[in-house]
Specification:
The complex is a heterodimer of chains A (358) and B (428).
Chain A (H helix, E strand, L loop, with lengths): L12 H4 L6 H21 L2 H27 L7 H18 L5 H20 L7 H21 L12 E2 L4 E2 L2 E2 L7 H23 L2 H11 L1 H6 L4 H28 L1 E2 L1 H4 L2 H14 L4 H25 L4 H22 L3 H15 L5
Antiparallel strand pairs in A: 1-4, 2-3
Helix pairs in contact in A: 2-7, 3-7, 3-8, 3-10, 3-12, 3-13, 4-5, 4-6, 4-10, 5-10, 7-10, 8-10, 12-13, 12-15, 13-14, 13-15
Chain B lengths: L1 H18 L6 E7 L6 H22 L7 E7 L4 H12 L11 H14 L3 E2 L17 E2 L5 H14 L7 E7 L2 H4 L2 H11 L2 E7 L7 H10 L3 E5 L3 H12 L7 E3 L6 H4 L10 E4 L8 H11 L14 H24 L6 H9 L2 E2 L1 H6 L9 E2 L12 E6 L4 E4 L8 H19 L7
Parallel strand pairs in B: 1-2, 3-4, 5-6, 5-7, 7-8, 8-9
Antiparallel strand pairs in B: 9-12, 10-11, 12-13
Helix pairs in contact in B: 2-11, 2-12, 3-4, 12-13
Classes of the chains: A mainly alpha (358), B alpha/beta (428).
């Protein structure tokens, strides 16, 4: 009914190993891309950009980054918030030092700087695993926040320690600062999220990704069959840091416009991104999107329903929203410990056989 | 696919909300926080803000005959939610934003300026917004953080010679807490006291090491810039090391009942600054009781009347309503736009006669806003906590701050912002 695979044959290896081997899936993916690039920018307004799409896309990039590290390579990290801060402060310093350079160059450079810093903090992973590594990255979280709060050079000696994004552009179109059009904000995030997802997808299904997964599943066996654990772990940290840095840079410059390290990049940010990855599905690119959507859009949606439609008091709605989101997290993890991505995979399997039961 | 269905549902919802008819009313969004780590302070302020507008609607039928509508949106003191609230409410004809959070203020300054909506950050936010030539849409009358720092120093000087003394600043390690540092450094050069900086990280539950440091260094006075749970912990810790409370001065955000009550009698004598009066002995309170509380229309639990922060929220609402009246007079229309509201705020003049007529005699300082000066006259008073009676008493009148030190700093900081944001300062 939904998944008609009749007549959908692969005649080459490339066809057989593509990301969406089923025609229906492939076309749906093209339609989503077409809508995202060709329809939404023309209908989006400030509210939809700032409250829904931009945070969702940025968190999706951060979740992809953490998913590479934790989901594909099995290295638990609790320092995502601070790593995003590295990206944010890097892009801030670049924006203020080189005002005429395009944001399309600044953001990836901020990602590269973050990749370097994250790799540095990834070094302990060569000796320690699991909980111990989580604590080491936790130390990174607190150290980096302290550093950005302590050293005035990072915030250009401003009186309050806040950093504010000046107005910068891409090909003459303003993408940061208060005068940014909603569609421009949305488009720059969409371009980065698309690139991040494509790069991540292709890395994870190549030899690099297989090495990561081998390390994740059993590092000793991986080493015996010739995977170099040092290189694998450090590349995972670097690639993950690159994406998280890009997310942090966009988060500060395009989305918030002003940030304070303790408030915007605290430990709760690390947990939020980690929950996105866990709920979405460890080791899945789609899962990163699903997790980000779940934790970014659901609270906004609930708020609109409870306060906007039912007219409940705001505090009650806020408490209830926590209860509902928390309850759903617990329910999802009980129903499917492998996250939303696995639920989707199972649904797909069922649909392919439909109407015949298994 | 989960994502698309959810987006679709949200889309339809938004369509429904956008399609609801626009009624003629004056919208005053309240970006409040009744949840989260700062809720204890957010609740009384939000209640006072809302109750005052409720009173105007019930008693006078609104402002200039048009009902006021308070649009509440929960931020939880979180900057991301603050942005979401701003975007969700600005389309409803919001007249003025009062986020009650310095972090959210910093994010909204460029946004409100671009959207042409005024913002009032009463006693918080970005101090250099006092310079209206640069910050056209941001107001921080009647007093700001730097005035507060100067008030505290003036108060210490009024009690004895300050030169050679050691003064500690215990501050919330965020944009808010860092604000007064520059001013205090300048003042310490001018008056010859030694400044000692003691940061406290959010949320401020844990301050053992900071107070150990104070115990060892023995500063003559402690000035505190705290918010939320940090205040009560600091006051308790100060009591634990038997620090003399009369030498401990908090900014107005460290001067609510929530901050002193947990320490009980040991908080007796603690001082806090304020830019409005305290208590509930005002004719307006009888009206509040009659039209709002007894009518069952009080915001929240209705148990905050007369607390310091409730009074502050009410004062904020009163200033907003007066600015709206001023705007109605200037433009000769009752149904004002955010741009007209901005003009009203810029032309606002608070006199004793005006406050008397409102049923709030002697409630706040007299001040006059102009395009060059969005910050009023910077007057403030010192209140002292009487633990036995359980109330704050003003122990000084409204006094000025050291403008010779503050104005150059404001010039410098606003000029830096103007250069950064490409604003040409000037009054239209």
């Amino acid at each position: 009914m939904f998944y008609r695979e009749a007549g959908d044959f692969s005649t080459t290896y490339q066809q057989d190993s593509q990301t969406f081997p089923i025609k229906f899936d492939r076309y749906r993916y093209y339609i989503v891309l077409a809508v995202a690039f060709l329809v939404i920018p023309f209908v989006i307004n400030d509210y939809w950009a700032n409250a829904v799409f931009v945070p969702f896309l940025i968190y999706a990039i951060a979740a992809i980054g953490l998913n590479i590290l934790t989901g594909y390579c099995g290295q638990v990290s609790l320092g995502t918030g601070a790593f995003m801060a590295v990206g944010a402060y890097a892009v801030y310093k670049l924006m203020t030092a080189f005002p005429e350079v395009s944001m399309l160059i600044h953001v990836p450079i901020a990602g590269l700087i973050t990749a370097g810093v994250v790799t540095l903090f990834g070094l302990p992973s060569l000796r320690i695993k699991g909980f111990y590594l989580a604590v080491a990255t936790l130390a990174a979280q607190f150290f980096l926040v302290w550093l950005f709060n302590k050293v005035p050079w990072f915030y250009n000696y401003s009186a309050s320690g806040q950093i504010s994004a000046p107005e910068r552009s891409v090909f003459g179109i303003i993408v940061t600062g208060p005068n940014t059009e909603a569609w421009a904000k949305y488009m720059i995030c969409l371009i980065f999220v698309t690139l991040a997802a494509v790069i991540a997808r292709n890395l994870t299904r190549g030899s690099v990704g297989r090495k990561w997964m081998a390390i994740r599943d059993m590092d000793i066996a991986a080493e015996i069959i010739g995977v170099n654990p040092m290189m694998s772990k450090l590349t995972a940290f670097a690639v993950s840091g690159f994406f998280v840095g890009i997310a942090g840079a966009l988060f500060f410059s395009v989305y918030l416009g002003a940030a304070e390290v303790g408030e915007s990049f605290g430990i709760d940010k690390s947990f939020l991104v980690l929950f996105m990855v866990i709920i979405g599905g460890l080791g899945s690119i789609f899962g990163s999107f699903a997790g980000a959507a779940f934790l970014v859009l659901l609270p906004v949606f609930l708020k609109n329903v409870l306060v906007g439609m039912l007219g409940w008091p705001t505090d009650l709605a806020a408490h209830l929203q926590l209860v509902i989101v928390g309850g759903l997290i617990i329910m999802f993890l009980i129903v499917e410990p492998h996250g939303l991505a696995q639920l989707w995979r199972l649904a797909k399997e069922k649909l392919r056989l439909w109407p015949f039961p298994h | 696919m989960k994502l698309t269905t959810m987006t679709l549902t949200t889309m339809t919802l938004a369509a429904i909300m956008a399609a609801s008819p626009v009624l003629a009313d004056l919208v005053f969004p309240s970006l409040s926080y009744r949840t989260g780590p700062y809720a204890a302070n957010g609740i009384p302020f939000a209640d006072g803000y809302e109750d005052y507008f409720t009173l105007l609607n019930e008693r006078d039928g609104g402002i200039g005959g048009i009902p006021a509508r308070v649009l509440e949106c929960e931020t939880g003191y979180n900057t991301e939610k603050g942005v979401e609230c701003y975007e969700a409410t600005k389309g409803e004809g919001a007249l003025v934003y009062q986020p009650l959070s310095t972090g959210i203020t910093y994010q909204l300054i460029p946004k409100v300026t671009a959207d042409g909506i005024p913002m009032h950050t009463m006693g918080y936010g970005r101090t250099s917004a006092k310079n209206g030539e640069v910050f056209s849409n941001v107001f921080n009358y009647p007093a700001n953080y730097w005035d507060g720092a100067s008030h505290a120093i003036n108060h210490i000087m009024s009690l004895g010679d300050i030169s050679g003394k050691k003064i500690a600043l215990v501050y919330h390690n965020s944009a808010y807490g860092k604000e007064p540092i520059r001013t205090l450094e300048e003042l310490s050069k001018k008056h010859g006291f030694e400044l000692m900086l003691v940061p406290v990280d959010h949320p401020g539950q844990e301050q053992k090491s900071q107070w150990l440091q104070i115990r060892q260094q023995r500063p003559d006075n402690v000035i505190m810039y705290g918010w939320g749970v940090m205040n009560q912990v600091a006051i308790q810790e100060a009591a634990n090391i038997r620090y003399p409370m009369e030498n401990f001065i908090g900014i107005w955000w460290s001067g609510s009942e929530n901050d002193v009550l947990p320490a009980g009698d040991r908080a007796n004598g603690y001082k806090a600054l304020t830019f409005h009066n305290l208590g509930r002995d005002y004719p307006l309170y009888d009206d509040l009781q009659q039209y709002v509380v007894d009518a069952g229309k009080a915001a929240g639990a209705g148990d905050q009347l007369g607390t310091a922060l409730y009074n502050r929220g009410m004062y904020a609402a009163m200033l907003a309503a007066e600015a709206a009246k001023t705007a109605q007079e200037i433009h000769g229309t009752a149904d004002i736009t955010p741009a007209m509201m901005r003009d009203g705020m810029e032309a606002l003049e608070m006199t004793e006669a005006k406050m008397e007529a409102l049923g709030l005699p002697n409630f706040g300082p007299e001040f006059k806003v102009s395009c060059e000066n969005h910050g009023g006259n910077g007057l403030g008073a010192v209140a002292q906590w009487d633990a036995a009676a359980g109330k704050w008493n003003l122990i000084t009148g409204y006094e000025g701050s050291d403008q010779d030190v503050i104005l150059p700093l404001i010039e410098e900081d606003s000029a830096a912002f103007a250069a950064e944001a490409g604003i040409t300062p000037g009054c239209s």
